[in-house]
Design goal:
The complex is a heterodimer of chains A (about 325) and B (about 425). Chain A has about 325 residues and is mostly helical. In chain A, about 75% of the residues lie in helices and about 0% in strands. Chain A is globular, with a radius of gyration of 20 Å. Chain A starts with a helix and ends in a 17-residue tail after the last helix. Chain B folds into three domains: about 30 residues; about 190 residues, Rossmann fold, CATH 3.40.50; about 170 residues, Response regulator (Rossmann fold, 3-Layer(aba) Sandwich). Chain B is built from 15 helices and 15 strands. The chains are: A mainly alpha (about 325), B alpha/beta (about 425).
Chain lengths: ~325, ~425
C-alpha cells in the first residue's frame, strides 16, 4: 500500500469519527469531546515547542488564561462585540508571548520550564487578587457564547461542538503546513543541533522567538474557546494543573506527532470522566498514569505503538534513539 | 519516518477506527438504561480542599433528613448522587454540574459551598432548566441582581443577618463603630450589611480595616484600631476567627471596646478553642444549637445519635435542603416540572430546626436571626441566643427594587467611612 492511501484512510476515518460524534453520542459526551478538542489545541501549542523545539513548558496556561480573561472582561465589563473581543484576546495572547518570549526563548531545558511557570504564577496571583477586574476566586461568570450565524445558537451543545471542531481542523491544518514548511524544518534543525544551525547561518534566536509567539497564539485560541465552553474564566486557567495536564497530554500522545495532542487529550478527558465516577482522587490517579506512561511509552502512545510496529516489520533502526528522532511529521 | 513507508498512518488509521467504535459503543450504552422512577438529586459539595468539613456537614445533614423520611416521598424513591466539586474550583464545579445534569439526568441540583461555583452553576442550571437548591453559598447577588427562576437558597444571604445586627448595635447604644473583615467578596458583604443599617439608624463608621484572608497575625491591625470607637463589628471565619478573637483579648482591647460580629467568628467548631477569650462576645446567627424548639431538639438529638458529634449550622442547612425538596415533592405529588417546581418550593412555609422559614420570590429564605452571647453552660462554651429578629427578608425593610438600586456591598469597601 502506498502512503497516500493510508493518509486518506486516516483522514477519512478521523473525520468520520468526529462527524459521527454528534449523531451517536449523548449530549454529555459531545460536551466531553468538545472539551477534549479545546484542550487539544492548548496541547498543540505546547507540542510546537516540545515536539519541534525540545522546550518543555508547564506555564502555557498563561496564554490560555490571558485570552480567556480578555474575552470575558471585554464582553462583560466593557461590552464589546464578541468578534472584536475574540480578536483582541488573540492579539493580547500574541503580545504577551512577544513580551515573555524575549526572556523565555533565551533559556532552555529546566530554566525554560521554570520561567514559564513563573509567568503563569504571576498571572495566577493577579487573577486572584485584582478582584475589581478579574472577580478573584469567583472568576467572571456569565459569559454567553456569541451568535455567529443567525439561527445557529452556539449555546446548544452540537452547534458549539461543530464550531470547535472547525477551529480545531483549521488549527491542525495550519499546524501541519507550518511544521512542514521550511520554517518548521528549521525548527527541527534547531532542536537537533542548535550549534549546527547557527553555523549554517540561521538566526536561531529569531526562529525560536517566532515559534514561541505562534505557540502563544494557538494557546490563546484554545483559551477563547474554553472561556466560551465554561462561560466562566477563573484563576484555575492559570493554575499549575491546567498547564501540566496539557503538557502531559502531549507527552501521552507523542511529542512532535501531529495527532499526538488530540489523542492525549481525548484519553485524559475520558479517563478523568471514568475515574471521577469511582474516586475523588483524580489527580493521584493521573500521577500514576504519568509514571506508567513514562515507563512503558516514553515516546507517547502513538510514538510507542509506531515504534513497536516499525520494529516488528523489521525496520532497521538503532534501538534507543532519543524521542526527537522518532517524530512523524 | 512515516512519510517514507506509511506505517505510521496505518497505526493512526487503526487507532481512529478503534476510537470510532469505542465512541459508538459508549454512545449506545446509556440508551439501554431505562429512566429509574427515583427522584435524582445531584449533591455537589466540597469533599476536598479548605471547605471539606463544611462539605461533610452538608452531606450528613441531608442524609439525616433522608433517613428520617426513609429516602421516599409521595411514593417516589429519592436517590442522592454526591459529587465532590473541590473548594473554589469553578471549572471543576461546572464539569461536575454538566455531568450530573447531562449524564446522570438529575432532577434537582443541590449543595455548593463557595459562591464562585454557585454563580457558575446558576448559569448552568438556567440553561438546562434544572431546579437549583443552594445549601450554603451566601453571595448576595445570587438571589438579588443575578437571580434566576431556578434558584432556591435555604441557607442565608451574606448580608441578610448583618442588617439586624447593625440595628441591634445601634439600639444597644453604640454610635461610633470600627468595622473589620477579611479582605474578600464575602467579607465586604457580611460587613457591608452591618454598616448599612447601623448608619441608617444614625450610627457612624469611623474606621474600616481589611486584613487579608488567611491572615497569620492581627497585631498590626489591632494596634491601628481607633480607640474612640464604642464598638468593633467584624466578620472573620475559621482559622482567621480563632486567631482574631484570641489576639483581641491578648492586646487588652476586649476590656476597652465591645466586640460584635457575624456568627462565623464564634463558630461552634472553634468556640471551645477560643474559650475564655470569647467569653461574653456577641454574635448573630440563623441557627443556634441551644434553640429550644421541638424541631431543633429533634434535629440535635438525631444528629448526635447518628454521627456522635454536635451538629453545626452547616449541618442544619443540609438538613433543610432535604426538607425543602421533600416538602415540595409532597405538594406536587412527586412531580418535578423545572420552573414550576421551584415556584412550589418558593411557596413553602414550615417549621425548621432554626425556626419558622418561608421564601421570597427570588428564592431566598426569610427567617429568624438570633443575637447570641457566649457563656459557659454546663461546663461548655456556648453561644446563648437572647434576642431574635423574626421574618427577616434579605432586603431588610427596603423594597426589593429600592434595595437593588443601592450600590452592592461588594463595591462599598472603603466607602463606609465618611
Amino acid at each position: 500500500m502506498n502512503q497516500k492511501f493510508w493518509i486518506i484512510i486516516f483522514i477519512c476515518t478521523s473525520a468520520l469519527a468526529f462527524v459521527l460524534v454528534p449523531l451517536v453520542l449523548p449530549e454529555y459526551y459531545i460536551g466531553l469531546v468538545t472539551r477534549a478538542l479545546i484542550l487539544a489545541i492548548l496541547a498543540m501549542s505546547i507540542n510546537l515547542l516540545l515536539g519541534h523545539l525540545g522546550l518543555a513548558s508547564v506555564g502555557h496556561g498563561v496564554f490560555f488564561g490571558i485570552a480567556s480573561y480578555t474575552v470575558a472582561i471585554l464582553t462583560l465589563r466593557i461590552g464589546i462585540t464578541p468578534w472584536c473581543a475574540m480578536g483582541i484576546a488573540i492579539l493580547s495572547a500574541v503580545i504577551a508571548a512577544g513580551l515573555f518570549g524575549f526572556l523565555a526563548t533565551r533559556t532552555k531545558d529546566i530554566f525554560f520550564l521554570a520561567i514559564m511557570l513563573a509567568f503563569c504564577q504571576v498571572f495566577y496571583g493577579i487573577s486572584v487578587s485584582w478582584k475589581a477586574v478579574t472577580g478573584g476566586y469567583d472568576g467572571i461568570p456569565g459569559l454567553l457564547r456569541p451568535r455567529i450565524i443567525p439561527g445557529l445558537n452556539l449555546e446548544h451543545t452540537i452547534p458549539f461542538y461543530i464550531f470547535v471542531l472547525l477551529v480545531f481542523m483549521i488549527a491542525t491544518g495550519g499546524f501541519w503546513i507550518l511544521t512542514n514548511s521550511p520554517f518548521g524544518l528549521t525548527l527541527k534543525g534547531i532542536r537537533d543541533s542548535e550549534t549546527r544551525m547557527k553555523v549554517l547561518g540561521y538566526n536561531v534566536w529569531l526562529y525560536k522567538y517566532l515559534a514561541f509567539i505562534i505557540s502563544g497564539l494557538i494557546g490563546g485560541i484554545s483559551g477563547i474557546l474554553h472561556a466560551y465552553y465554561d462561560g466562566c474564566p477563573n484563576p484555575a486557567d492559570f493554575g499549575i494543573v491546567r498547564s501540566s495536564t496539557a503538557l502531559f497530554m502531549v507527552i501521552l500522545g507523542g511529542p512532535g506527532i501531529l495527532a499526538g495532542p488530540v489523542v492525549g487529550s481525548i484519553i485524559i478527558v475520558f479517563l478523568q470522566d471514568l475515574i471521577s465516577n469511582i474516586t475523588d482522587r483524580w489527580l493521584m490517579f493521573l500521577g500514576g498514569v504519568y509514571v506508567v506512561v513514562v515507563l512503558l511509552f516514553p515516546e507517547g502512545v502513538l510514538g510507542g505503538i509506531k515504534k513497536k510496529l516499525d520494529l516488528s516489520i523489521g525496520m532497521k533502526r538503532e534501538a534507543g534513539l532519543p524521542i526527537s528522532h522518532l517524530n512523524g511529521n | 519516518m512515516i512519510k517514507k513507508n506509511g506505517q505510521g498512518w496505518v497505526t493512526l488509521s487503526i487507532l481512529s477506527i478503534a476510537s470510532t467504535v469505542v465512541f459508538l459503543a459508549d454512545g449506545f450504552i446509556p440508551l439501554k438504561i431505562h429512566a429509574a422512577p427515583a427522584v435524582k438529586i445531584g449533591y455537589a459539595i466540597s469533599m476536598s480542599g479548605v471547605f471539606t468539613s463544611y462539605g461533610e456537614d452538608l452531606r450528613d445533614g441531608l442524609n439525616l433528613y433522608m433517613d428520617k423520611i426513609g429516602h421516599k416521598v409521595a411514593g417516589r424513591n429519592i436517590e442522592i448522587i454526591v459529587e465532590d466539586i473541590g473548594s473554589n474550583q469553578v471549572n471543576r464545579a461546572l464539569d461536575v454540574g454538566r455531568k450530573l445534569i447531562q449524564k446522570n439526568n438529575i432532577d434537582i441540583l443541590a449543595g455548593v459551598i463557595d459562591s464562585g461555583s454557585a454563580y457558575a452553576l446558576a448559569n448552568l442550571v438556567e440553561k438546562h432548566k434544572i431546579p437549583f437548591v443552594i445549601s450554603n453559598a451566601g453571595a448576595d447577588d445570587l438571589t438579588q441582581r443575578k437571580s434566576n427562576p431556578y434558584i432556591m437558597r435555604v441557607s442565608f444571604t451574606n448580608s441578610g443577618g448583618s442588617h439586624p445586627l447593625g440595628v441591634w448595635a445601634f439600639e444597644k447604644g453604640y454610635r461610633k463603630a470600627v468595622v473589620m473583615g477579611s479582605d474578600y467578596a464575602a467579607g465586604y458583604e457580611h460587613v457591608g450589611g452591618i454598616c448599612q443599617t447601623f448608619k441608617k439608624m444614625g450610627g457612624k463608621i469611623i474606621q474600616e480595616i481589611w486584613p487579608p484572608l488567611g491572615n497569620q497575625d492581627f497585631a498590626p491591625y489591632l494596634a491601628n484600631v481607633n480607640r474612640d470607637a464604642d464598638v468593633v463589628m467584624v466578620f472573620f471565619a475559621a482559622s482567621d476567627a480563632l486567631r482574631f478573637v484570641k489576639q483581641y483579648e491578648e492586646y487588652g482591647l476586649k476590656k476597652k471596646i465591645p466586640l460584635i460580629g457575624k456568627g462565623y467568628y464564634l463558630d461552634d467548631n472553634i468556640l471551645p478553642k477560643q474559650a475564655e477569650a470569647a467569653d461574653g462576645l456577641i454574635s448573630e446567627s440563623h441557627w443556634c444549637f441551644l434553640l429550644d424548639t421541638p424541631e431543633n431538639n429533634e434535629f440535635n438529638t438525631a444528629f448526635i445519635k447518628k454521627y456522635g458529634r454536635r451538629p453545626t449550622n452547616i449541618g442544619e442547612q443540609g438538613y433543610i435542603t432535604g426538607m425543602v425538596i421533600a416538602k415540595a415533592l409532597e405538594k406536587t405529588k412527586g412531580e418535578i416540572k423545572s420552573e414550576e417546581f421551584v415556584k412550589v418550593m418558593r411557596s413553602l412555609e414550615f417549621k425548621a430546626p432554626r425556626g419558622m422559614i418561608k421564601f421570597d420570590k427570588y428564592g431566598e429564605v426569610i427567617q429568624t436571626y438570633y443575637i447570641r452571647k457566649v457563656e459557659k453552660v454546663k461546663g461548655e462554651w456556648q453561644s446563648v441566643p437572647f434576642k431574635s429578629y423574626p421574618e427577616v427578608s434579605q432586603f431588610w425593610t427596603w423594597t426589593p427594587e429600592e434595595y437593588m438600586k443601592m450600590t452592592p456591598y461588594m463595591e462599598m469597601k472603603g466607602k463606609w467611612v465618611e
